[in-house]
Design a protein that fits this description.
The longest helix is centred in the last third of the chain and has 18 residues. The protein is α/β, with parallel strands linked by helices and about 250 residues long. It contains 13 helices and eight strands. It is globular, with a radius of gyration of 18 Å. Helix 12 links the parallel strand 7 and strand 8. The protein has an eight-stranded parallel beta barrel, surrounded by seven helices. The chain has a single domain, classed as Phosphoenolpyruvate-binding domains (TIM Barrel), CATH 3.20.20.60.
Length: about 250
């Protein structure tokens, strides 16, 4: 099975990623019905628990067809990483990867022996991806390490070189805060852009993909134009809030 993400990357394109923070299969279904290539189910800062994540993955599959599901676990912890993969996530976006040791532990949790130490028991994954899932998973599961701290930034070259890692993913809010520049969404300041470009270059030098958390379409397109392979376009919570705010404010002001 070649996933939608793999097809796009094989053709040299940029993946457009959706983001789910609201614990609802209805929201998941609505987002999956849009033209996203992949969707992250966020168990870290999203309000989603494991059981709800499963129902959301089911809704995405029903509504989104070939949309690739990626889970963001609460932390770099093997148990929940393995459970998300067993539940049917085809990739993991792992927060707080600060050094090569963190990256190796993360990748190991995503791969079966001999590449890693993932426990065998892909309950839902096998039912939706086929009986040969175990033999194919190591070659296809997507592993994205979040770069979002000073320590990660300083170790970015070594992290990028981690065997089995698919790519790096920039969390600009945490990265800006950790670097001392403050929280910046869709950052354009010289200092943040220099950091972003350094992370991009580290990924490219290691032959890995690089992703970016973006809010607005123009910014996501700008990141794609400077070599990003994976761009998140907003998230359900912020989009809903922005649309509600705009409509009520328009009424009040009129």
């Amino acid at each position: 099975m070649v996933t939608r993400i793999e097809k796009i990357w094989n053709e040299g394109g940029t993946v457009v990623n959706g983001w789910l923070s609201i614990p609802s299969s209805i929201t998941a279904e609505l987002v999956a019905g849009q033209d996203y290539d992949s969707i992250v189910v966020d168990l870290q800062h999203g309000l989603i628990d494991y059981q709800t994540a499963i129902t959301m993955m089911q809704a995405i599959k029903a509504a989104g067809g070939d949309v690739t599901v990626i889970a963001r676990p609460p932390w770099n912890e093997p148990g929940i990483i393995m459970k998300c993969l067993d539940a049917g996530a085809w990739g993991i976006l792992c927060p707080m990867i600060n050094n090569p040791e963190d990256a190796s532990a993360f990748v190991g949790a995503c791969h079966y022996a001999p590449k890693g130490y993932r426990s065998v028991g892909p309950t839902r994954a096998m039912s939706i991806f086929g009986p040969d899932y175990i033999t194919r998973a190591n070659d296809h599961v997507i592993t994205l390490a979040m770069i979002e701290t000073v320590e990660a930034y300083e170790n970015v070259d070594a992290i990028a070189e981690t065997p089995g890692l698919s790519g790096l993913y920039i969390g600009p809010a945490d990265l800006g805060q950790s670097l001392g520049y403050g929280v910046q969404l869709d950052p354009t300041s010289d200092n943040m852009m220099a950091a972003i470009e350094r992370i991009r270059d580290a990924a490219k030098a290691a032959g890995k993909k690089v992703g970016m958390h973006c809010m607005m379409p123009d910014y996501a397109r700008a990141m794609a134009n400077i070599g990003f392979d994976f761009v998140t376009l907003g998230n359900d919570f912020r989009m809903l809030t922005a649309e509600l705010n705009a409509r009520v404010r328009s009424f009040r002001e009129s």
